[in-house]
Amino acid sequence: MRLSAIGRTAVTAGLLLAAAACGGREDPGAGAGATTAAGGCQGQQTTGITDTGIKLGGIYPLSGPASAYGAIPKGIKAYFDYVNAEQNGIGGRKVEFVVRDDGYQPPKAVEEARRLVEQEQVFALFQTLGTPSTTATWDYAGQRKVPQVFVATGASKWGTDTRHPWTIGWQPNYVSEARVYAQYLKQERPDAKVAVLYQNDDFGKDLLGGFRKAIEGSGITVVAEQSYEVSDPSVDPQMRNLAQSGADVLLNVTTPRFGSQALAADARNTKWNPLHIVNNVAASITVLRPVGFENVQGVVSATYYKDPVDPQWENDPEMTLYRAKLKQYAPDADPSVPYHAFGWAVASSFHKTMEAAKCPTREGLRDSMRNLSGVEVGMLLPGVTMSTGPDDGFPIESMRLMRFKGERWELFGEVIDTRREFGPLTAD
């Protein structure tokens, strides 16, 4: 729900009262810099949080094959800088956001997670990007009982695996996204022959598996599959093989660098003209621009947050705020880059989740992120809200389709709530 000014004041006041009730004391067994909370939160961890500050750590591929995602923390930092300067932080606590680079390498992600938790003494890991990196670190986060909040990956296991209550996703999971594309094809191309390019890891296999399951019982068939490794220099060989499949739809399940390559290869092959569906994580303008906008007309994808270049949001209050504060606090960041808007949206989501915590502790944040109910976030599309439960780790499961036209994406159709259309996603 969208909080009124009175509601926001009440939430903030409630958090401050909880902080007073849960005043910390040192716990010799909790590790250096750790405290435990008294009162109603007796024994809970307050490492990385004080009455005046909260320290978060993020892990991103600032270098390497997925470095395009390095734009996300700029949007996050701009949001936190704005909140710190103009709203006295979150519940009176100024946010410090420490960013580490793992180069999209899981062993490096583990190393950086340990550094953030054990040396930097962060309160929570906020945004670990990538399915492989998050998979490599969530056991560690769980063992240390450190919240791993709103990880930047849509792997379905973040929500279906209840053995890891300290880790939670944020964006629509890949199975839900696959369901959206399947539903679209059932309506528009019920006899489609689909060729799939996918990244050979948990990310690519998750979306492909979700798509295969969603088309069961329909006339849609997958006629060809080609995978690639993140260490590959190019996906041109895979695209040549897929072009010989006779498919009339190409499902492009890639990260940004390889998404650009696949779109370019498709454009060069004038003898093959499939409907090109590109997954959300590779649908940024920064992916399409190098290919040439004239070469990506009609490409289809899906989204859940507002596109900064879509004119329908020109006078939108949240978009106006985002543009102004990004310019003020991150002047080198281009507000038209969707990854900056993504960062702003997820930081705002954390703000609301932390404010709703009954106690300002790691356990309090864990419980809050697992108990969201219809929470509205200004940068999300109208009709898209955050909801979770003890056994539901998928905050967002609604999306809208979009088609590239001219120099931007255009939304079409209604918001698709995959919970309602396909039923809840559960562990197999």
Salient structural properties:
single chain; 428 residues; alpha/beta; Rossmann fold; 2 domains; four-stranded parallel sheet; 13 strands
CATH level-3 fold name of the largest domain: Rossmann fold
Q: In whole angstroms, how far apart are the ends?
A: 32 Å
Structural class by SSE content: alpha/beta
CATH superfamily of the largest domain: Response regulator
The whole-number mean of residue pLDDT values reads: 90
Helix content: 25-40%
Number of strands: 13
Q: Give a short account of the largest sheet.
A: 4 strands, parallel
Question: Which CATH architecture of the largest domain would you pick?
Answer: 3-Layer(aba) Sandwich
Domain Leucine-binding protein: 54-405
Organism: Planomonospora parontospora subsp. parontospora
Pfam families: Peripla_BP_6 (PF13458)
Keywords: Signal
Structure overview:
The protein has about 425 residues and is an alpha/beta fold. The chain has 2 domains: about 5-170 and about 310-395, 3-Layer(aba) Sandwich (Rossmann fold); about 175-305 and about 400-420, Response regulator (Rossmann fold). The chain has 14 helices and 13 strands. The strands form 4 sheets. The chain has a 4-stranded parallel sheet with strand order 4-3-5-6, sandwiched between helices. Residues about 1-40 have low confidence and may be disordered.
